Amino acid sequence: MPFVAGLELTRSRVAIVTEGARGIGRYAALRLAEDGFDVVIAYSHDRSAAEDIRAAIEERAGRALTVETDVADETAVVLLFQQAEEAFGAVDVVVNCAEIVMCGSVCDMAPEEFAQMHRTNVLGAFVVGRNAARRVRRGGALINLASYVSETSRSAYGAYAAGKAAVNALTVFLTGELRERNVTVNAVASAPVVADPASPEQPGDLARIAEAIAFLAGPGHWVNGQVLRVDH
Hints:
It comes from Streptacidiphilus pinicola. This protein is an alpha/beta fold. 44% of the residues lie in helices and 22% in strands.
């Protein structure tokens, strides 16, 4: 029986992409659909954009589902996995692209802003990760969105970088916890990307990041516990 990346080619493969209606998540959802995944597009607020991505996938003979989800809400994330399983049978890959980027020095950022950002970026990664650990099919993958600003001292990104450092740590520790089930856990790190349709460089940047995600979800299943850096 043929295999690709630990996943059988003879069965349907299913991917959940959080914040799959915009930015990196949008490109990741479309790219995984190209590889034959049924895609669950989790979105936080922009239903119209999510439905556009679903329609684009279905126009290419793919299958997709949209689910409104707050990644930091345990009940909402449990429901996300339940709906994915009801629609497509199981979940093989989870790509967590949900994040908030706020710029500003640590000294000047309000505690409320810090908490808001970290609720999505850190608590969200924890909630999505723990549910993926319980629900992803054997031989699957969890892919987080990291950032290499966590390795720098760029003053405008201090609070954001702290959260991404936490995501890196969660990625490494989940690797050990899921190794026995042959579920890989990795992260893709880039500079912060704000999806700006007016920028001619954005589509290429986002496509390269999505390509790295597709690699880890498929042929790169032998890679585990890594933060894969993607330069623009």
